[in-house]
Design a protein that fits this description.
The complex is a heterotrimer of chains A (384), B (291) and C (576). In chain A, the strands form 5 sheets. A 5-stranded antiparallel β-sheet of chain A has the order 6-7-8-9-14. By secondary structure, chain A is an alpha+beta fold. In chain A, helix 2 packs antiparallel against helix 3. Helix content of chain A is 29%, strand content 16%. Chain C has a domain of 255 residues: Cytochrome Bc1 Complex, Chain C (Up-down Bundle), CATH 1.20.810. Chain C is built from 19 helices and 7 strands. The chains are: A alpha+beta (384), B mainly alpha (291), C mainly alpha (576). Chain C: One of its GO terms (molecular function) is oxidoreductase activity.
Chain lengths: 384, 291, 576
């Protein structure tokens, strides 16, 4: 943006002289009128007392703050005032008031007692004096000429190239911030069930089949019998391995701490039992339910909030974050809101003891979409 | 320091008022006693009173409920085939005790989600209605106080129940009912009601029966003991002081943002107006001075 | 350049310093003997003028709440442990005792329950953050609506916009630190946003989280960003912002004695030192009162973050509310093509809309100066009504912001007003498009009406409310001329001219220098200039004013004559 620097005042209005364009001349500063405190010693004294009183009140509040700090208990045995935590309220109120009173005192002092003459300061344009500007520009020009950068494109370009390349270390250094995604987003721990693995038993290597992954109650941790559930039941569930890793030949450390969080962030499940006649299984999903019990990922396909606000009467599941709504009777189809894909459904069955198990892992990535997510690779494409 | 209540912060069941506890206990005893009699068909001598109760319940039902739910609780359809009042043949006594006991039934207008309101029937009448509906088919019975009331727990048990219940509550209930039990929105104008301050029995019954659009949490879904743990946690939420000051309805960041703008910014802008306001002027001159 | 001398101080200098001032003088001399401070005050006078107006204090709210943030923040760092190592909570809060959580969450609970005043400091820090950003926003509105962003203050405008952006990021990283359920849900959503970014999305997510979400890195990394990186930049930018305010000197409202070449008001030392210093205590005090009286972010009720748990009413803090609202009302748009997925339902509301709005904000001063062709310095403020199109642009932007913001609370609106969340969403989908357009049109017309009202006041005087009945039965309201000062304030503004792209081609059809592109740009500029200025009411010329005042005077005489002759025995108007 080029600046013209002939400054003309945005409008005239110099005192007394009437610029032809201006309908009214600037009348100039109004006469200074004194405040009551300037002319009346009684009022002045009163204002002085008021200011001092505010400072005094502040001091009282500060003392009360210290008193509250040392007398009011917190921890597992809070003092309370009318149902609220006494310590926080008392400390906040005393600190707040002591600060407010100081502020009020100072401002009252400034408004009533400090000199109150308005003064006038002249402005200067933001730019430098012409001589300085010319000198600086000249210096700049001479300096540039002395580098010879304009005449030596080879140096200029190689210098620019070398400097630009310095971005590489900056980026490369960030590489170890995390692991590469790989196919981590395409699998969940549900896939741990039903595998064949080799273990060492009595010094011999034997192949064992990991049992199919049972579905367990979230937070409670017990596996669920198909017969436990009544029509209308909604269960917030997790793979049993998170509570009982040994049964699935998984090290406890792998389902602990942030590993546990990572598994939960993909494996969380919603289990719903509805009237089998209400259920409209999708193509290829005819055997994914057990007697009207269906299982869906609990992770919203929009941005990944856990989602379990179900309306029993309509089987519509609502996300509390952005209100995407899915029809659990109809393959998790999106019926409302911003989510772009249905909720992934987990094929389930019952094992010999009658416990609900996952037939396999999810057949598509759960959770929010991402760039590499390839619809062609979903093992069961949508029927439309 | 008389304002201070030293024990008020203690998260303990002892903090409930003594009279309230007594009333709950008495009510519980009365109800359970009466209902135990009502639901013990093996005892021949109680069969008569049970029949009596059902008969009384049927009379009440015909007057207050049959218009929507049908003469025999079979439900009523509208002409277009929609459900006007649902069938009550297999809802059980717990459902009736919840719906009528929280004033949701009888409904003021059909169609909308039933709201909590003033209870219309007396406890005895509710017991009779429950008994009648229970006699129509299957369904969960009204729970014993032992099953739901956290007051029946010892201090150590209570603490354990609260911790466990909190985690189950957060896994199963907060999605709809919010972290403080303040309730939340559901699709198409529906809502999950506030559950703070609700009678433990009604919470238990709600989990068991799934009122309105709520899912059921049958005993096979959340075992009875864990339901009790949830109720113990809710009890703690009710009883614990608000450590940080007024809670603004427990609705989360929306109400907090409102306070920041209205109280915080509003107050500060008011101060700014005062700071920059013109001070009063006078035309009087100082004695002797000539300005 | 001739400096104007419209006004000098309007009173006598204060009396001879008294004893207290002498002591102060002695201390100052001692310091100057060693540091040469007086030299430094040559460029930066202690008697620097700061004009009085309440709206000039809005930026100060932001400044002082930032200071509160620094103070309370330092306190919190003494106790907070930004680690995601899993521990079993064993502190004072009974309902969580025995629950597994990160050190970050456990130390947050420790601050809240085992450090006296810790909960107060946490809440003050959080309230101050909300006020910091709120104050920046209304300060920005004030600067825009009064035209204070014009030359030479464009750079400060840009710095201000960057401060708003950084403040928002600072807020987000800050409220995520406790690792509680609510903030964790927000971080999970942020992970979704990153994953939706084209090409590098999943890599960004895995690198930020140190592996797969949630990992054990995000809290320490947010902590470094929150307490070091962004506060450092904020501090530097705030300093630059203030230096520029001092250098440019404050803008002022037009008024008697005030011109483009001076600045009139009380001096910094002592008046504004006291007023600004006092205001710091007031901001601090207000934050402490909020922190003590209102519960904020009760993390103990949310519990530790668990990716399988969620609560109804999961909202971000208010300043993140509007993109969250857009996320709620965006239709389910997702494209999958050539084996990749484009999530418009995330990219549009989060990755495109907020940066775009920021760009628009930054561009506004330059856009306006291009349209108006105005390259002069401006130090006198404009009333919003005197720039109807500018005001209308901001009204449109704010309407968009406000509606998106409301969408961010659609579930709370639904339960509090007993509405259907679906209907609210459908309504807002349309309203965010139509609302701003309506707001633009209405605001612009409204401003122009207010200008007409001002013009009428200037030309015909103000309405006294005195109704006069003439002998022949007609009624008229008596108008009286406004004071000279008031009239001057109304006329102290620029006369605007619509730019017309003349000379793009001359009569013989030879293209003007610059070619077609310049011609099109000129045409666009002409159109926009007409939109900005053509309908505005310009102030009258001296001649017009004189004539109409003469006319009004005549009418007044007429009226007074009627009063004395007619049934109204009010007496002459000189009483008024």
């Amino acid at each position: 943006m080029t600046d013209s620097h002939e400054i003309e005042p945005a409008h005239g209005g110099h005192h007394g002289e009437l610029v032809p364009d201006e309908p009214i001349a600037n009348p100039g500063m109004p006469e200074h009128l004194p405040r009551p405190t300037d002319v009346d010693p009684k009022k002045e004294k009163r204002a002085e007392l008021q200011v001092a009183a505010f400072f005094g009140l502040s001091a009282i509040c500060t003392v009360l703050f210290a008193v509250a700090y040392f007398t009011l208990d917190i921890g597992s045995n809070w003092h309370t005032f009318g149902g609220v935590g006494a310590s926080t309220v008392a400390l906040g109120a005393t600190l707040g008031l002591s600060m407010l009173f100081i502020g009020i005192a100072i401002i009252h002092w400034a408004r009533k007692l400090m000199g109150d003459h308005e003064i006038v300061e002249m402005r200067h344009p933001a730019y430098s004096e012409e001589v300085d500007r010319v000198r600086a520009l000249d210096d700049l020009k001479i300096g540039f000429e002395e580098t010879g950068i304009a005449r030596r494109p080879l140096i200029r370009n190689s210098a620019l190239g070398a400097l630009a390349l310095l971005g590489v270390p900056a980026v490369v250094l960030l590489r170890d911030l995390g692991t590469l995604p790989g196919d981590a987003l395409e699998h969940t721990i549900w896939g741990q069930g039903g595998r064949k693995i080799k273990i060492i038993e009595d010094g011999k290597e034997v192949e064992v089949e990991v049992p199919l992954m049972r579905i367990a109650r979230d937070a409670i941790g017990t596996p669920i019998l198909a017969s436990d559930l009544e029509i209308g039941d909604l269960v917030n569930a997790q793979p049993e391995v998170l509570f009982n890793p040994g049964r699935y030949y998984v090290e406890p450390a792998d389902v602990h701490g942030h590993e546990l969080q990572t598994h939960k962030s993909k494996a969380s499940l919603i289990l719903l039992r509805m009237e089998p006649r209400d259920l409209k299984p999708g193509k290829g999903r005819e055997d994914w339910d057990v007697n009207g019990i269906v299982a869906y990922s609990k992770i919203c396909t929009h941005v990944g909030c856990p989602i379990s606000l179900n309306e029993r009467t309509t089987h519509h599941l609502l996300c509390p974050c952005h209100q995407s709504t899915f029809d659990l009777a109809d393959s998790g189809r999106v019926v409302f809101g911003p989510a772009g894909r249905p909720l992934p459904q987990l094929p389930i069955a019952v094992d010999e003891q009658g416990y609900l198990v996952a037939q396999s892992d999810f057949t598509e990535p759960v959770g929010p979409s991402y760039w590499e997510r390839d619809y062609e690779r979903d093992r069961f494409a949508e029927d439309d | 320091m008389r304002l201070l209540n030293r024990s008020a912060g203690r998260l303990s069941r002892h903090r409930r008022g003594p009279i309230a506890g007594l009333v709950v206990l008495l009510l519980g005893l009365l109800l359970t006693g009466g209902l135990y009699a009502a639901f013990a068909p093996a005892q021949a001598d109680s069969a008569a009173s049970q029949e009596e109760l059902v008969k009384e319940g049927r009379e009440l039902f015909l007057v207050g409920c049959a218009f929507c739910h049908g003469q025999n609780g079979e439900g009523v359809l509208t002409q277009s085939g929609d459900q006007y009042g649902p069938a009550l043949t297999d809802v059980g006594a717990a459902s009736v005790d919840f719906q009528v006991g929280t004033g949701r039934m009888p409904m003021s207008t059909p169609g909308n989600q039933a709201q909590r309101k003033e209870v219309v029937y007396s406890d005895a009448e509710i017991a009779a209605l429950s008994a009648y509906v229970a006699s129509l088919g299957t369904g969960p019975a009204i729970p014993d106080a032992e099953m739901y009331d956290p007051a029946t727990l010892s201090d150590e048990e209570y603490d354990e129940y609260v911790t466990r219940g909190g985690q189950i509550f957060l896994a199963n209930c907060t999605a709809c009912h919010n972290f403080e039990g303040s309730g939340g929105a559901m699709p198409r104008g529906g809502f999950a009601p506030k559950i703070r301050g609700v009678d433990p029995k009604h919470i238990y019954e709600a989990m068991l029966t799934g009122p309105q659009s709520m899912d059921t949490f049958s005993d096979g879904n959340i075992p009875p003991d864990d339901k009790k743990a949830i109720i113990a946690y809710l009890d703690t939420l009710n009883e614990q002081p608000s450590y940080g000051g007024l809670t603004l309805g427990g609705l989360g960041p929306v109400s907090e943002g409102l306070i920041a703008w209205l109280v915080g910014m509003g107050g500060l802008v008011a101060f700014a107006v005062w700071i920059a306001a013109q001070t009063t002027r006078t035309s009087k001159k100082k004695d002797g001075a000539d300005a | 350049m001739k400096t104007s001398d419209v006004a000098s101080t309007n009173g006598s200098e204060p009396a001879t310093p008294k004893r207290g001032a002498k002591t102060a003088g002695a201390v100052a001399t001692w310091a100057d003997d060693r540091l040469g401070l007086a030299k430094a005050t040559k460029g930066l006078s202690l008697r620097k003028v700061f004009p009085d107006h309440w709206s000039f204090m809005l930026g100060e709210i932001a400044l002082w709440s930032f200071v509160v943030l620094l103070l309370t923040g330092v306190f919190l760092t003494l106790f907070f442990d930004p680690s995601m190592a899993e521990v079993t909570y064993n502190g004072s809060y009974d309902p969580l005792r025995g629950v597994e959580m990160s050190r970050a969450m456990a130390s947050t609970l420790e601050i809240s329950f085992d450090v006296r005043g810790g909960l107060l400091m946490r809440q003050m820090h959080h309230w101050a953050a909300m006020i910091f950003i709120a104050a920046m926003m209304i300060h920005l509105l004030r600067v825009y609506l009064t035209g204070a962003f014009r030359k030479p203050r464009e750079i400060n405008w840009i710095i201000g916009c960057l401060l708003l952006l950084l403040g928002t990021i600072e807020g987000f990283t800050g409220y995520s630190l406790p690792d509680d359920l609510l903030s964790g849900t927000g971080v999970r959503a942020a992970d979704g946003f990153m994953k939706a970014s084209p090409v590098i999305g999943t890599y960004m997510s895995f690198f930020l989280f140190g592996g797969e979400f949630p990992g054990d890195q995000i809290i320490p990394r947010f902590y470094a960003i929150h307490i070091l990186l962004i506060p450092g930049i904020l501090l530097a930018l705030i300093t630059a912002h203030l230096i520029l305010v001092v250098y440019h000197k404050h803008t002022q409202w037009p008024g008697p004695g005030k011109t483009e070449e001076n600045v009139v008001g009380p001096p910094l030392m002592p008046i504004y030192m006291a007023k600004a210093g006092g205001f710091f205590f007031i901001v601090f005090g207000m934050t402490a009162l909020l922190g003590g009286l209102f519960s904020l972010n009760p993390v103990w009720k949310y519990g530790p973050y668990d990716p399988s748990k969620v609560t109804a009413g999961s909202q971000p803090d208010w300043y993140m509310g509007w993109p969250d609202g857009l996320l709620r009302i965006i239709p389910p748009w997702e494209t999958h093509i050539f084996g990749v997925t484009l999530s418009w339902n995330i990219m549009l509301p989060i990755l495109i809309a907020p940066p775009l709005l920021l760009m628009v904000l930054i561009a506004l001063p330059f856009l306006e100066s291009w349209i108006t062709g105005d390259k002069r310095e401006h130090h006198l403020l404009q009333r919003p009504r005197n720039a109807p199109t500018r005001t209308a642009v901001m009204a449109a932007l704010i309407t968009f912001y406000g509606l998106s913001w409301a969408a961010g609370g659609n579930d709370i609106i639904a339960i509090k007003l007993h509405l259907s969340i679906n209907q609210i969403t459908y309504f807002l989908r349309g309203a965010v498009i139509i609302g701003p357009i309506l707001a633009f049109i209405i605001t612009r017309r409204w401003c122009i009406s207010l200008q007409r009202h001002d013009e009428a006041k200037l030309l015909h005087g103000y309405e006294t409310g005195v109704i006069v009945r003439s002998p022949d039965g007609g009624y008229a309201e008596k108008h009286l001329p406004i004071s000279e000062e008031a009239a001057y304030v109304l006329t102290a503004r620029d006369r605007e001219e619509v730019y017309s792209p003349n000379g793009t081609s001359d009569d013989s059809g030879v293209a003007a220098p610059g070619g077609r592109r310049a011609a099109i740009a000129g045409k666009v500029r002409g159109k926009l200039s007409a939109l900005m200025f053509a309908d505005n009411v310009q102030k009258p010329t001296a001649e017009e004013l004189h004539e109409s005042q003469h006319h009004a005077e005549h009418e007044l005489h007429e009226l007074e004559h009627q009063i004395s002759a007619g049934p109204n025995k009010h007496g002459p108007s000189s009483d008024h």
